[in-house]
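User: quick one
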Amino acid sequence: MFVLETKELTYTYGAGTPFEKTAVDQVSVGVKKGEFLGVIGHTGSGKSTLIQTLNGLLRPTSGTVLLNGKDIWAEPKKIRAVRFQVGMVFQYPEHQLFEETVLKDICFGPGNMGLSRPEAEARARRAAEFVGLGEELLNKSPFELSGGQKRRAAIAGVIAMDPDVLVLDEPTAGLDPRGRDTLLNQISEYRKKRGSTVVLVSHSMEDIARCADRVLVMDGGRAVMLDRTDRVFARGRELETMGLRVPQITSILLTLREKGYPVHPVLTVDQAVEELRPLLKKEGGVRHDP
Amino acid sequence: MIRDITLGQYIPGRSLIHRMDPRVKIALTFVFIVFLFIASNFEGLLMMVALMFLILFLSGVPLSQYFRSLKAILFIVLFTGVLNLFYGGGRVVWRCPFFPVMQITDGGIGNAVFISIRIVSLILFSSVLTFTTSPTELTDALERLMKPLKVFHVKVHEIAMMMTIALRFVPTLLEETDKIMSAQKARGADLESGGVMQRIRALVPILIPLFVSSFRRAYDLAMAMECRCYHGGEGRTKMKQLHMTGLDAAAVACTAVFCGAVIFCAAYFPASLR
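Assistant: Done. Structure below.
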């Protein structure tokens, strides 16, 4: 039932040297087929390391990663096949662009899969459409694009491999609010159409609250919470002790609840309006402090 | 992983050698190397080896570190050593049964040993310098030592600044390479298999983004430097002033004694190279 699962996964950097550091410690988590999993954690909590073990870029020090129930390291020579099934978009993916044209760059992944030229191009065009890159941009040099367009071209390069699981590490970092919204919508849209699974690492609690079905919270290399998004954010005070925060609106509702108001700590402004409306009616519209 | 490669061999410490003025260290290393070649016999070489061991001991760097630096040149030492076996005069010790021209003489054995010790000492002397002097100290000292070249319109400050910047960005670029490699591997780039040509071609997706980001960094840095009104070395003062102390005087005196001994040996004993 899990498309991707880790079992007691541990990763230690520089094992056997004085600089030994365990970045991921005994993590056992599963990603369900078709779900949108958010991953949050303080800088250095091990989330980037964790996701790099998911597609076999890092080989776990101990423990296993199961893809559709099979250990991805059972045959180390076939690890490339795993990377096509678990697509990984790194932070600032625009730094990986290198080809002469955007289309060729998006074709790099499909080409490595051994697809024929026309087939790879067909996939590239579809991927470009998903991320909203117009036809007129495809024959430009990737270095002529704007920052946001570069980012989309790079993400298209991973989507073009048609992975079952798409892992994104901070895909909205450094984008303006509108670029952020568009990109997240496109990812959600892509997931809906393809029925693929998405793992999103983000520092923005608002992004996670908006998109994720479930949230994994990492702290000090351990997986400390894995639950439905609303349940995780309802534990806002615990998150704060880990250097994380909850979406602003949730934080406000949590404070109201601590003061004794009967509200649920919901995740979006629209939901909050629904929560607060009956409350305001009961109090006669405005609350006057004595 | 690529960032595990240690670049720059500086081993921090507070030993007598560490605390010396880097200018003096560079100058004395130069003197040592010259005198290794002035020493023409085993007696003189013994003086240099004794001085070398004294310095190795004073540097406080574990001997294992020095051995590691020797490992890299082991091949060169063996190669020159074996070659020298056959190029000496004197009594023939062994003659190749197939090629009678190839013969080992006692003079050749002496030469081989002499040359090997010379090369090993050469490496160890320079290792002391790089082990005990941080890269920034080194460039600082080089800038100061090259100052006289200004007469010939050599841009000494600019050269030193370039060296400092290059050194500063080595770890940054290594990290960047690591990231780009991961990203391309995630897109199925195959860096580990295939023939030579295939491997070279596989480097293109890594080198191009690396070039692009180096240029971006260079522009950013140039901009940041200009924002801080950087205009070259004219009238610029140093945060860390280099000072010579009694320690440096002692080091110079000590070197002078040993070098005097080498000259004495060279004058009074016959040359060992035959």
